[in-house]
């Protein structure tokens, strides 16, 4: 019998291999989880930035989802770059049609090099169509500001933003603090039952952070596919991403990749 834990990523590719779908699959493998991959966009990019994006048609995205649903036993799924409204609509439709287990939404909006990976119009579709289906949403601070229209400056603002994300339908929220420059990174977790806590980690200064958001959401997805509860999954994923950042490898000239090889 084959009971290998299986997870799935719905995301864009990164030709340089550091972010997007490649980061997700490397993370799944490093955690001992098999990964299915639904390609929604192809990007020409490297560690310096995104040069070109080609979206995949909704029909082809649905065909990939349907093929996986027909055959594999996916226990948890995450979304990465979704790009446009048609893709968000297709993914939302598939999430109600098929049972892929808990949905982790990484609301990817802008790459570190500045490229927009989600249109403004698609942000509304994420809020209205996807958010109500989400087990966990994992925005960074700028993404949380866009989703809530709040200006987030204090820890009170962070807690309010997380509550608003729950109001939009996300059952649980991980609001990541890595985008500030404070020496201590504060991540805030608000769970479905109202329990909440902070994770405090020392900032590690490095430019090798390409695909950090992809990696933490993929690690949480893998941990859920392994059968862990959400709280355990988030803490294990945070430990994993911190280790891969500290151990970053020398590839390319700017935002180098994390190290999933150790
Ligand atoms: N490219 C793709 C396809 C992604 O999915 C992401 C993040 O989700 C990025 C690029 C951004 O990577 P970063 O901002 O970490 O450089």
TrEMBL record:
E.C. code: 2.7.1.49, 2.7.4.7
Endpoints of the signal sequence: none
Pfam families named among the record's database cross-references: Phos_pyr_kin
Reactions catalysed according to its record: 4-amino-2-methyl-5-(phosphooxymethyl)pyrimidine + ATP = 4-amino-2-methyl-5-(diphosphooxymethyl)pyrimidine + ADP; 4-amino-5-hydroxymethyl-2-methylpyrimidine + ATP = 4-amino-2-methyl-5-(phosphooxymethyl)pyrimidine + ADP + H(+)
SUPFAM superfamilies on file: Ribokinase-like (SSF53613)
Molecular function as annotated in GO: ATP binding; hydroxymethylpyrimidine kinase activity; phosphomethylpyrimidine kinase activity
GO biological process, one term: thiamine biosynthetic process
Residue ranges occupied by any Pyridoxamine kinase/Phosphomethylpyrimidine kinase domain in the UniProt entry: 14-259
CDD domains for this protein: HMPP_kinase (cd01169)
Family: Belongs to the ThiD family.
PANTHER family for the chain: HYDROXYMETHYLPYRIMIDINE_PHOSPHOMETHYLPYRIMIDINE KINASE THI20-RELATED (PTHR20858:SF17), PHOSPHOMETHYLPYRIMIDINE KINASE (PTHR20858)
Protein name (Swiss-Prot/TrEMBL): Hydroxymethylpyrimidine/phosphomethylpyrimidine kinase
């Amino acid at each position: 019998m084959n009971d290998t834990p299986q997870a799935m990523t719905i995301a864009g590719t990164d030709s340089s291999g550091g972010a997007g779908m490649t980061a997700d699959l490397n993370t799944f493998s490093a955690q001992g989880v098999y990964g299915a991959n639904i390609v929604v966009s192809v990007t020409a990019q490297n560690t310096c930035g995104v040069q070109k994006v080609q979206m995949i048609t909704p029909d082809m995205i649905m065909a990939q989802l349907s093929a996986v649903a027909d055959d594999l036993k996916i226990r948890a799924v995450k979304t990465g770059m979704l790009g446009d409204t048609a893709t968000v609509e297709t993914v939302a439709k598939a999430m109600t049609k098929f049972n892929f287990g808990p949905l982790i939404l990484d609301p990817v909006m802008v790459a570190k090099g500045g490229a927009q990976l989600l249109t403004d119009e698609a942000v509304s579709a994420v809020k209205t169509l996807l958010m109500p289906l989400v087990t966990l949403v994992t925005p960074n601070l700028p993404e949380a500001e866009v989703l809530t229209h709040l200006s987030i400056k204090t820890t009170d603002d962070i807690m309010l933003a997380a509550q608003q994300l729950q109001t939009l339908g996300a059952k649980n929220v991980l609001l990541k603090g890595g985008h500030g420059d404070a020496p201590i990174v504060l991540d805030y977790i608000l769970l479905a039952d109202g329990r909440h806590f902070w994770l405090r980690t020392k900032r590690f200064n490095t430019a090798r952070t390409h695909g950090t958001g992809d990696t933490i959401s993929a690690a949480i997805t893998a941990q859920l596919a392994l059968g862990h509860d959400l709280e355990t999954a988030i803490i294990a994923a945070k430990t994993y991403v911190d280790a891969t950042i500290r151990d970053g490898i020398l590839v390319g000239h700017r935002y180098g990749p994390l190290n999933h090889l150790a």
